[in-house]
Design goal:
single chain; nine-stranded mixed beta sheet; globular; alpha/beta; three-stranded mixed beta sheet; about 450 residues
Length: about 450
């Protein structure tokens, strides 16, 4: 259990000690750990509910300090893994899964023949009542981050410390991070990519383009070379975007082999699935450095759920860069919102948690002047934050590389002071967590 905290913070292992107060229950379900934190998994006390909107048992009062240890009513490693891998709402536990798959299959066969107004109407019907979903928390869920902050506060108190050192989340003194990504869905979007690169670059951003390898449009080598030659990034976007990548395990393995081959051909190290369909437990079939298919909150996606964190994390050997902001198609066509108000609200919450802001804008959907004007407004807003608030604007591959390097770094004490060791440590910073109520605040030690 102590490893959970050290993996998130890269803090010294011997500065925290956690143990269960009694054995875990045989059954799993929803419960609370504090009024603001919903968990899913087994616990040692109270009851566990099948639904997140039920009256949940609050286990926080069953948490005690037995210095130097913290006695917990659940295993945080198990609960966090359930959230990060969306096991609390895994598709095999959803009622009507077989009928859902059949409907999905029919829809994607008919989709090429459906006009956009009809598709929008069908999507809105499918997503009706999304605002009534109690968990994850809309518009940004930071449950995993809140659990870790609360564990850190308890560890500091149990050890009788004033503060605990850790390796800051981002290189140098960057307070948070932003990546801009573009999924290219059709030939019109492919042909607009050059204009979109011009637009991003005019605000000082370099972005990634996720390209569908088969069926949707031709992918000439010159297209890929232009993106890479302009210091943007090429990634693989599904295989053929037919909505069936994860429908059958054996078929998925075959498609994953083909996807890996396209990754080598494209020189791509990142992946995003079509329509954000996903199954984190199958990711071992991929040969990518990172994935970007799991939303933070999936209320408005065909596959609901969400990883409940604003930070990158590992799924096996692959780094997951969660989609933390609503995608443009959803904003414009489902919510009918032609403003950046929701994006600003989400970015504000993510920045408060020092997290990763992930923007997804499709070239296909910003060709017209109205959505393009909104995207320009978003870029200006992000550029201002980057310059004023010291936000790291990076390519996804650079964020994944940093997160991988950080995972190998260690804090060591040298001449009475803390220092970071490991490849890339020259960019790392020592930070400190201090108790504030039942959570912690952070400070970064200047270089």
């Amino acid at each position: 259990m102590t490893k959970t905290l050290s993996e998130y913070y890269r803090s010294p292992d011997n500065y925290a000690s956690f143990r269960l107060n009694t054995p875990l229950s045989p059954d799993a379900g929803y419960f609370q750990w504090g009024e603001d934190t919903v968990c899913y998994g087994r616990s040692t006390t109270g009851h566990r509910s099948e639904r997140a909107d039920a009256a949940l048992y609050n286990t926080f009062g069953d948490t005690t300090l037995d210095s130097p240890s913290v006695c917990l009513p659940f295993d945080p490693a198990e609960v966090i893994e359930n959230l990060l891998r969306e096991r609390y709402t895994a598709e095999f536990r959803e009622p009507g899964r077989l009928s859902n798959l059949a409907i999905r299959k029919i829809y994607y066969r008919l989709r090429p023949f459906l006009a956009m107004p009809i598709r929008k109407r069908l999507q809105k019907i499918h997503l009706r009542n999304w605002h009534k979903i109690p968990f994850p928390q809309w518009p940004v869920d930071s449950t995993v981050d809140r659990i870790n902050r609360r564990l850190m506060a308890l560890a500091i108190r149990a050890q009788g410390l004033e503060e605990m050192p850790f390796i800051w989340f981002w290189p140098q003194e960057f307070t948070s991070c932003v990546i801009i990504t573009h999924d290219v869905e059709n030939s019109g979007g492919r042909d607009f990519c050059r204009n979109l690169m011009d637009l991003d670059e005019s605000f000082g951003f370099y972005s990634s383009f996720q390209v569908v390898p088969e069926d949707r449009y031709a992918v000439p080598e010159s297209f890929l070379q232009e993106i890479a030659g302009r210091q943007f990034e090429v990634n693989v976007h599904d295989l053929n975007h037919d909505g069936r990548l994860y429908a059958d395990y054996e078929e998925f393995r075959k498609r994953a082999t083909q996807i890996n081959q396209y990754a080598r051909r494209f020189g791509a190290v990142g992946f995003r699935s079509g329509i954000l369909y996903r199954n984190a437990d199958w990711y071992d079939a991929f040969d990518f450095s990172y994935d970007m298919s799991i939303p933070n909150v999936g209320h408005l996606d065909p596959q609901r759920g969400g990883c409940c964190t604003v930070m990158p994390y590992f799924i096996g050997k692959m780094v997951e860069l969660p989609l933390t902001c609503t995608q443009d198609h959803t904003l414009f066509n489902i919510l009918d919102d032609y403003s950046i108000d929701l994006w600003k609200r989400q970015v504000g919450i993510i920045k408060e948690n020092h997290g990763l802001v992930t923007i997804l804008v499709h070239p296909d959907y910003v060709i017209a002047q109205r959505p393009q004007a909104i995207y320009r407004e978003l870029l200006k807003y992000l550029a201002d934050l980057r310059d004023k608030d010291h936000m790291w604007a990076a390519l996804p591959r650079d964020v994944a590389n940093w997160w991988r390097e950080r995972s190998e770094m260690k804090l060591v004490k040298m001449n009475g002071s803390w220092a970071v060791e490991g490849p890339g440590s020259e960019r790392a910073r020592v930070a400190y967590a201090r108790v504030s109520g039942d959570t912690v605040t952070y400070s970064i030690e200047p270089k």
